[in-house]
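Q: Got a minute? One more chain.
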Amino acid sequence: MGGRPGWNKDYWKKMDRETARKLRTTCPKCGSDRTYYNKKFKVWRCGNCEHSWVIEGMGDRIPWWKRFFRWLGFQV
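A: Always. Here it is, folded:
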């Protein structure tokens, strides 16, 4: 578990959905609010530090990279 609230799953469970949705659009690496959603790769990306991340539970499918690694036999 990291030191930032974005990396603590229990932190988000205690918070209401609307507030969590707004807060999760800040970059977990640098804290910038200049983020955008890349529809093609289904990841969030920071416009400041170029860090990209996936928010669990957003969307209806498992991300392509998790499906790929599971197909290869890795436990992700």
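A: The longest helix spans residues 64-72.
Q: Perfect, thanks.
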